[in-house]
Write a structure and sequence with these properties.
four-stranded antiparallel beta sheet; binds flavin-adenine dinucleotide; globular; single chain
Amino acid sequence: MKPAPFRYFRPDTADEALELLAEYGSQAKLLAGGQSLIPTMNFRLSQPAVLIDLNRLGDLAWIEEARRGLKIGAMTRQRAAERSDAVRSGAPLLSEAIPFISHPQVRNRGTIGGSLAHADPAAELPALMVALDAQFLVRNRGAERRVPAADFYTGLFATALAEDEMLLSVEVPKVPKRTGWAFEEISRRHGDYALVGVATTLTLDRKGRCDDARIVLLSVGEGPVTASEAVAGLKGQEPTTDAVRLAAEVTATRDIDPPSDIHASSAYRRQLARVLTSRALTRAAARARGERGSAGEAR
Ligand code: FAD
């Protein structure tokens, strides 16, 4: 359980980190909370020649309420986001879901940016950001670009980040009026990675019909999986029990093709997706209608 030898740098600013990344490129790894990277280095699944420690970068650890939504710096600890009033009011879906990420000890160190960049298909945050239609701000030494969360995830543990790029922050748009949200997951024990999880948002029009919805699943593919066919069927419909049940069925049978592994069979994952999507959409619809007792009201 010892990592292979590496050179260690601890820059004070994001610009210094980007200089180092430009110099060492493919040989380098950024170290954020270390909750995923250090175990993989200890198992020698990852053997970077250079480690660039971001933990002195105070300029990347912040949460800001902006006019168009919520902004979160990449080095913000998951626990800080979980406890933030700004996150609770600006992105309540995140507040609801972050406690499902492992245990407080892991969230105390683990960062928002680290989880998003690591791109574990069983991680909550990537699916949540796709559901929230977030934008990722990415930079290298010379240029900055914005990448929609849905385009950021390109495969198993793979992202649109180039070797010399760093994730700086995430922007989550304001929750539209008459929008509800819900997150559901099942794991063997609380804090374990999810066997299946689902993040939903649902916006109603003035007549109570579904104007927009997002259903994004984790642990059913190589990254966050959007249930596009289910959403297309739901749009324009009142989210009645039958409509929700149909959307959950379409999600489970047409939108996903989950793998079998040592944790769960494909068939079991489909059944979990069916049940969890139905629960999540039901709660999101109740919130969108402003029903009390649904653990929240519409925005
Ligand atoms: P690190 O481990 O430091 O880095 C992870 C990767 O991201 C590395 O490749 C690193 O180079 C890269 N990186 C980090 N920051 C940046 C950046 N700003 N720009 C570009 N690349 C960057 N996660 C879940 O989602 N759900 C769980 O249920 C869960 N359970 C866990 C249980 C245990 C026991 C442990 C140890 C971890 C668990 N995790 C879980 C992982 C945890 O959430 C990690 O914190 C997270 O995946 C990585 O965040 P980090 O800040 O620790 O990143």
